[in-house]
Amino acid sequence: MSLFERYRQIPPSALGRARHDALVGLMDAAVWGFWGLSDAFRRVSAPPERDRSIALTVLDRQVVAHDQDVVALTLGAADGTPLPAWHPGAHLDIHLPSGRIRQYSLCGNPEEPDTYRIAVRRIPDGGGGSVEVHDDLRVGATVTTNGPHNAFPLTVPGYGSPTQRFRFIAGGIGITPILPMLGCAERLGVDWSMLYAGRSRDSLPFLDEVAQYGDRIEIRTDDVHGLPTAAGLLGDCPDGTTVYSCGPAAMLTAIRGQLVGRDNVELHFERFAAAPVIDGEEFTVSIASTGATVCVGAEETLLSALKRADAYPPYSCQQGFCGTCRTTVLDGKVDHRDTLLTSPEREDGIMLVCVSRAQRDERLTLDL
Ligand code: FES
């Protein structure tokens, strides 16, 4: 691999910064310095809103778990143009034909500019998105997206991380963001190991694909080995390891607990779904359009309560970082628990109902 190719493989840092380059940094500082100085002498009109929506066609569809419950879709631009680039850990917000928006990790090869690949496990009693993907997205169907986003970026040992090796831990469909990370680690020659866990081999997607890595990937299933312990998940995890994990909440909680005090181990994880509510208190919301009131329990999210009352905004990540569920608050004080909204947005009465709540003794009125 040439030096340039090797450089191109390195993902941006976990903080979203571009790769370090002293000359580029100097030029960047000069340009931004000039821009800052000239700010006093110019009026900048707001740039026109740009429609970033990309129409994607389903080019291929494969069942990738023996239990038939996981389907992988290969998507290409409906107009045949190359797609925006992405790095391991990225996901797509897919706008389904029903209007639902769902997030799916990109699990294909970032080196292939013409296609994206996602994989979806069917969840019969979920919010309907996975069932729609399974039942309605046949080859030739069209969905839209605003392009890849990365909330789970890969920081590579020796290339932005002071660690020396990776430990990957995937639970079931949690393999999806991890698959492209394995390819990246291989291309960059970084030492890695992995544990892939699930209920049974039949439930594990992409077993054929991971077989190419041989015994570097340990496959562990509950029906044969019993439930894994945190120590078993982490395996041999010496200081200087970067752990990337995606899976169910219980698995991630066990790993986090096991790594408390291990300051020389980096942990990066992505959940399937919403984190449990911590320090929640019961409160009441009013729906402005109908006057209905909804009681939100101490341990449930506002979004869950709104769904129960059948009055809820579109949602996607349910973790406070995609912004899909933003809702205007007409009255009441909000306990903001997201990582996305800016102070001006909060001052304008916007909240993310998937994670944020009412402040103590407050009652909210929502513009729904
Ligand atoms: S659903 Fe993504 S921020 Fe609420």
Mean pLDDT: 87
- Total helix count? 10
Order of helices and strands: HHEEEEEHEEEEHEHEHHEHEEEHEEHEEE
The bound ligands are: FE2/S2 (inorganic) cluster
**Biggest sheet features:** 6 strands, antiparallel
Structural class from helices and strands?
Answer: alpha/beta
Write a short abstract of this structure.
The chain is of the alpha/beta class. The chain contains 10 helices and 20 strands. The chain is globular, with a radius of gyration of 22 Å.
How would you portray this structure in words?
Strand 3 and strand 4 form a beta hairpin. The radius of gyration is 22 Å and the shape is globular. It has helices at residues 3-9, 22-38, 129-136, 175-188, 207-210, 222-225, 230-234, 249-258, 302-308, 343-347, and strands at residues 54-63, 70-77, 90-95, 101-105, 115-121, 142-150, 156-157, 160-161, 165-171, 191-198, 217-221, 241-247, 265-271, 283-287, 293-296, 326-331, 334-335, 350-352, 357-358, 364-366. The protein has a 6-stranded antiparallel sheet with strand order 4-3-6-1-2-5. The protein has a 5-stranded parallel sheet with strand order 11-10-9-12-13, with helices on both faces. The chain is built from 10 helices and 20 strands. It is an alpha/beta fold and 368 residues long. The structure holds FE2/S2 (inorganic) cluster (FES). FE2/S2 (inorganic) cluster binds at residues 315-318, 320-325, 352, 354.
